[in-house]
Write the structure tokens for this entry.
Amino acid sequence: MPKRTFTSKSDIDKIPFPKAGQTDYFDTKSTGLGLRIGTTSKTFFVKVDVKDPSKKTGYRTVRKTLGRYGDLTLEQARKELTGYDDKEKGFVPGKRLELKRGVTNSNGANVTLDDMLDAYFLEKRTRDGKGFKPATVKGYTNIITRHFERWLPLTLADTAKLTPDIVIDRYRQVETKHGAYGARNAFVMLTAVINYSMVKYPGIITSNPLNVLRLGKHMKKIEARTDRLEGNDFQTFHEGIQKFNEITRACYLVCLYHGLRSEEAAGLRWEYVNMEKQEITIPDTKNRQPLHVPMCRQSLAILKRRLEQNPEDNQWVFPSLYRPQNLNKSGHVRLMAAELKAKTGLNITVHGLRRTFITAARRLKIFEDADRLTNHIDASISGKHYDGTGVDDLRKPLQVIANEIERLMTEGIGAKVINLA
């Protein structure tokens, strides 16, 4: 195959396209860097020989596409091939080294942080022995990939060599751009992945370089959120949600009347709503325990109206009919804290409505039943093995709580009943 020294962009531009087929050129300056010239495109690739005992020669050839010329510059292709030093990350191995390392996997010697991210969610189990929820895996993976994209190709041995200065500098960068909570959340997640690596490959990585953040008190302590509706906030909230479309407004009210989490209410399906028995089931909750609760008078009226107006064969109780489909691929409404704050003028989150429900219940001296209605598990011996409280037992306390919330929203407006029309 022809060899050529790639000196500049103009040098590559001068290489003609063949009338048919493909021609591969190899750079004499960067061993392993190739450029495939097709009839209409030019593409960088890397080609290296790696050890393979199964072959007679003891070697085999491995090839990897780097990217199309134009999308990738010559300088970028060489960095992708050889790796580079970065003040923020330290040394980042290139594709050539990555391919060679990928051939053997002796006791985790070539396992990367990216590999461990996949292994963590695939192999690890939660306290109840179940795997992570798909939404959890997707959310955590997106966060780690976004903030540590350049660290993920590092092997575990290279990860252990991340210096305190590099770790602290990266934390400060994420904190500045995404806030203290965003930075803490990202680094706590990555810490868990590296801790699992230490258990799985103790011969490769024996310490977690991110511990410098915890031991040095660099991560800001995040105070628990306490937002909830208080006093006149109830009336302000009720007036503010009138700015939403009817379906979204109804979903917010069901959240408030039942103390449901955002996804539990927004993702409610008709198959889990029993209008005859006036019961609601949430099969998959945050703690993995299904929630089975009665309806109150207020939520029953809301759901009856939703059923009357429900499009034929639509599975969602609160479908996203008023939103372009590209804004919410799930098909149901999304309850957004930013939008709720903007339209009500209150510093309230969707989860703050759940706190409001629980607070209202406690002020009415309803404690254990409020926990059952919000799926807070009683870990005591009595709660685990002797509590036989059922759905019907929860109807009266739920109605008392809902009546109080309705009163707080309507008092002073001149009506005792919310007009849902």
Summary: The two ends are 76 Å apart (CA to CA). Residues 412-419 have pLDDT under 50 and may be disordered.
